[in-house]
Write a structure and sequence with these properties.
single chain, 314 residues, alpha/beta, 13 helices, 7 strands, globular
Length: 314
């Protein structure tokens, strides 16, 4: 049986193997995945993002527990955008979700983000597709919210949960970084710590501002959680379900998916073009010459790009 068929039959080793191939950008496997693209299911996709150490993995583990009680098969990809190598943090994710290690209906995988262009998004989309093929629903994507990655995760998921904690500076950081703009649901985790009420007020205030934006109204629910004791997790799972109901009632899911596919195309096109410039027989010499001219300051970066486009007839 080929690998795709084995994934479809929910063979755990095949799923693990496929995710390694995705992580390595293995072209034959990606081509096989693409060949069956039209038949890949569309499970619910939930993104979990937030500052380092906010409790995303612990919270994900509690969410899994809740969803298992509902009989759902849960697939999780934890992507580390900061490290191109598997390191201690990734192992941490695995450890934090070990209570589900023997459950065949839960699959948790940590992976390093691949590539600079489109960063996080490229490999994670494929990983989600592998989990979708293996009939996991929902598929949860955890990522550390630093820099561009939270915008990427918003594009990966139907529902994005932003996890914050009362730790000093978190709220300021989140409000500044525009992280609130991508939140469909906000979890204030470590609510057992001091300052969670205050943080909740700050966040609600920031979210109220969003209510004045045009478009259908979704005011992100703010849920206080203690991931280590599962407190508030039922409410959090409910809030995620409510957002899904909202998307369905608005008929918005097809558009969310369509926009996601186009964003994916854009990322892949960017990556492919850059690769062509660096390795293509025709483009590489030209690109190298322009790079050295830009280094010397004899031509501006913009002028160099214009010359590239003209010479390559783009
Ligand atoms: N007091 C308290 N500690 C928590 C809570 N949730 C998580 N923690 C602890 O916070 C630490 C970090 O938790 P993780 O789940 O690894 O956090 P994370 O956001 O996944 O971390 P990264 O993936 O490294 O960014 C662990 O020691 C958890 O036990 C909580 O609600 N209350
Ligand atoms: Mg984590």
């Amino acid at each position: 049986m080929d690998l795709i068929a084995r994934i479809r039959s929910r063979d755990v080793r095949a799923i693990a193997r496929a995710l390694t191939l995705v992580e390595n950008g293995d072209e034959p496997f990606l081509a096989a995945l693409d060949a069956g693209y039209a038949h890949i299911p569309h499970p619910e996709r939930v993104g979990i993002t937030g500052p380092p150490g906010a409790g995303k993995s612990t919270l994900t583990s509690s969410i899994i527990k809740n969803l298992r009680r509902q009989g759902r098969r849960v697939g999780v990809v934890a992507v580390d955008p900061s490290s191109p190598f598997s390191g201690g943090a990734l192992l941490g994710d695995r450890l934090r979700m070990t209570e589900h290690a023997l459950d065949e209906d839960v699959f948790v995988r940590s992976m390093a983000a691949r590539g600079r262009f489109g960063g996080l998004a490229i490999g994670s989309h494929d990983a989600c597709d592998v989990l979708a093929l293996a009939a996991f629903d929902p598929v949860i994507v955890e990522t550390v919210g630093v820099g561009q990655s939270e915008v990427d995760i918003a594009r990966l998921a139907d529902t994005t949960v932003v996890v914050l904690t009362p730790a000093a500076g978190d709220s300021v950081q989140a409000l500044k970084a525009g992280i609130m703009e991508i939140a469909d649901v906000v979890a204030i985790n470590k609510a057992d710590r001091e300052g969670s009420e205050h943080l909740e007020e700050d966040i609600k205030e920031a979210l109220e501002l969003r209510a004045h934006q045009p478009g259908p109204l979704w005011l992100p629910p703010v849920v206080r959680t203690v991931a280590t004791t599962d407190e508030g997790v039922d409410e959090l799972v409910n809030a995620i379900a409510q957002h899904r109901t909202f998307l369905l009632s608005q008929g918005a899911l097809p558009e969310v998916r369509a926009a996601r596919s186009v964003a994916r195309l854009t990322d892949l096109a960017g990556e492919a073009l850059l690769r062509a410039l660096r390795t293509g027989t025709r483009a590489k010499p030209l690109f190298e010459r322009l790079c050295s001219q830009v280094r010397q300051g004899t031509i501006s970066p913009r002028a160099a790009v214009n010359e590239l486009l003209t010479s390559l007839k783009l």
